[in-house]
Amino acid sequence: MFQNLFKIILGLLLCISISAPTADAQEYGTIQALATVVSSLSVVGSNNLQFGAVTPGINKVVDRSTVGSAGEWTITGVANAEVTLDFSLPDSLTTLDSVAFMRISFSSTDASYDDGTGGGQTIPTATLDPNNFVTLRIGAGATIMVWIGGTVLPSVSQTGGDYASDIVLTVAYTGN
Prior knowledge:
It contains one helix and 13 strands. It has one helix at residues 2-19; strands at residues 42-47, 60-62, 71-76, 82-88, 92-95, 101-105, 111-114, 126-128, 134-137, 143-148, 150-153, 163-164, 168-173.
């Protein structure tokens, strides 16, 4: 009986060892998840849109190419990155006490930019429509200059005084 028991145990051990899966060799590979966070954009308003003295009843225009009078922003970011430009334009200027208003308008050719491929403010890279969302690329030098002009439309009975309103340029990376 001992022999039979020994044969049964030996047979079971043999079956278990034959049917058990073996891991002779295992291989694996590893990769990393990588990302580069681009530097933040810098948008600096470097010159106000300045109409100077305005006569009641006579519209006054400042061209985007008028150095020292046109509004100006300097945008700095990642070279060759795609960005969007979105202007928030006022429809009027107001006195400090908000008692009097003067209309202002912006045409489809009242803005321009230079990404380093143009000749600056007087010979920019291209004209922009400040009334619409714009997509373009930052130049190889990592800078874009943007200029804006416009027209004020004082009424014949325009109240005297200083008028102002904000023009906001919002710039954002597109990821392209």
